[in-house]
Design goal:
heterodimer, A: 229 residues, mainly alpha, B: 249 residues, 11 helices, 75% helix, flat
């Protein structure tokens, strides 16, 4: 396939896509953990907020989230900043808007994955941690989280695949990712099929790599099953 | 920040027009996708490796690439080939509407084929053996036993797929269609009220997905009724000798 010298453009786009996906994964995991903690807490308000968050976000198209945050985010931020007496213009770039939108979407689904994993952990694990005199936070990070992690990785791996594909949406608001760079190449070469097909294969490659990494992490996080497969 | 409610009310009927197109896209491509998914799933569940390879690569491609790429491949990609432009396909492929339908149908066919495949493989072997032992032919068995059973098993997951398709249909707005998202974007370009209009559109999406969820709950209740079946209590005055100690207490 002749890329007519646009290969480097696609590679730079791939790099942006990877950065966007990893940044959204990181922030999204934090949202997911916080959401799951809120859903399982004894505080009714926290549970209520978390349930509202997951129901709302899981029913909205990701594209709508991206567009809302990109076009309405600065308006919203400036409004909130004005409470604190800050009146300068705030602009949200496509990358930040993309990370915000994708991590909010990822976090909503991850909340459910973490919640189910946390419920699998026997209560005795908590109690034994506390019995040793660990604080609840330390018990969570030392005892519970490593076990939750093992149970959550397959589900999170699937979600990351979805996230990786959703990064393409951010090209709609002008981020120079794979899709955008393919469009740039197309406007010069007039070969839409070729370049979108190449873009499709780059995404296939990325999802294949993500699957491989997920499988590796699944094995690494589960020493007990390592001998089996 | 000034919140302009009157703009939302003024343009709400237009948003609902967009919502109709969204519903139409989901319904039409959902039906086509379903019709494609059933044979794909049957082929995919085959024990013959050569039969499996075509559905496998189809499913792998459509599940591994973003829907946006698939839409652009159909809508913009088709125009690269003079052969297509000269052929009878062009009147269809130059319409954004049909391109969206094609891309959504193929996409949902791939996802639902995978769901149906796992459902087919989840049917208890005893049921298949029972069908064989009463002398059913393969096509009859597929029609009477395998497909109804697989559909019942996959129904909850299929409901999720329909919700995902509803959310994916927002991408129709990227190829100039005025679906719910497209309509909101057009109105925003005119009025510059992004937060208000996107919020209104989001509420309509939420209402539609609530409707879809309710529909699937109902269908699940009807199709998998045996799971919800409660046996009627034995009459109190029944002869104690006839009582079954395993059922009554």
């Amino acid at each position: 396939m002749d890329l007519q010298g646009f290969g480097h453009l696609l590679i730079s786009g791939t790099w942006i896509t990877v950065q966007l996906a990893l940044a959204s994964l990181l922030v999204g995991l934090i949202f997911g953990l916080a959401g799951a903690a809120a859903k399982l807490s004894n505080n009714r308000l926290a549970r209520w907020i978390a349930t509202g968050y997951t129901t709302l976000v899981r029913g909205l198209p990701e594209l709508l989230l991206v567009l809302t945050i990109y076009f309405g985010g600065s308006q919203l931020l400036m409004w909130m900043a004005s409470w604190f007496g800050y009146d300068e213009y705030i602009e949200i770039g496509p990358f930040i808007a993309g990370v915000a939108a994708l991590s909010i979407a990822f976090g909503a689904y991850a909340t459910e994955v973490f919640r189910m994993a946390m419920q699998e952990i026997p209560k005795g694990q908590w109690e034994s941690g506390l019995a040793y005199g660990m604080s609840p936070a330390r018990t969570f990070f030392r005892i519970i989280l490593p076990q939750v992690w093992r149970l959550a990785i397959p589900g999170l791996g699937n979600l990351f695949q979805v996230l990786l594909k959703d990064t393409a949406l951010v090209s709609v608001v002008g981020l120079n990712d794979i899709m955008r760079q393919a469009q740039v190449a197309i406007s010069a070469t007039k070969e839409p099929f070729t370049f979108f097909l190449v873009a499709a294969f780059i995404y296939l490659m990325l999802t294949a790599v993500a699957t491989g990494v997920t499988m590796f992490m699944e094995r690494a996080s589960n020493p007990a099953a390592r001998g089996r497969s | 920040m000034s919140w302009e409610w009157d703009v939302v009310f003024k343009y709400f009927p237009q948003l609902l027009d967009g919502a109709w197109l969204t519903l139409e896209l989901v319904l039409v491509s959902g039906l086509i996708g379903f019709a494609l998914a059933v044979p794909l799933a049957l082929m995919r569940a085959s024990t013959n490796g050569w039969v499996r390879i075509l559905p496998f690569s189809f499913i792998y491609f459509f599940r591994g690439t973003p829907l946006l790429v698939q839409i652009f491949l159909v809508y913009y990609g088709a125009s690269q080939f003079e052969v297509i432009k000269a052929s009878f396909l062009w009147p269809v492929l130059k319409e954004a509407y049909w391109c969206a339908i094609i891309a959504f149908s193929l996409n949902t066919a791939a996802y639902s084929a995978e769901l149906f495949r796992s459902a087919i493989q989840a049917i208890p072997t005893g049921e298949i053996e029972a069908a064989e032992s009463v002398g059913m032919s393969k096509p009859l068995m597929i029609r009477r036993i395998i497909l109804p059973r697989a559909f019942g098993i996959s129904l909850p997951a299929y409901g999720n797929e329909v919700i995902l398709m509803l959310k994916g249909s927002a991408l129709a707005s990227t190829i100039t269609l005025l679906d719910l998202t497209g309509m909101a974007r057009t109105i925003i370009a005119r009025t510059y009220t992004p937060l208000e209009m996107f919020l209104a559109a989001g509420l309509v999406y939420l209402a539609i997905s609530a409707l879809v969820i309710a529909l699937f709950r109902f269908m699940e209740y009807r199709l998998n009724r045996y799971q919800y079946y409660n046996h009627t209590d034995t009459p109190k005055d029944l002869d104690p000798q006839l009582r079954d100690p395993h059922i009554d207490n």
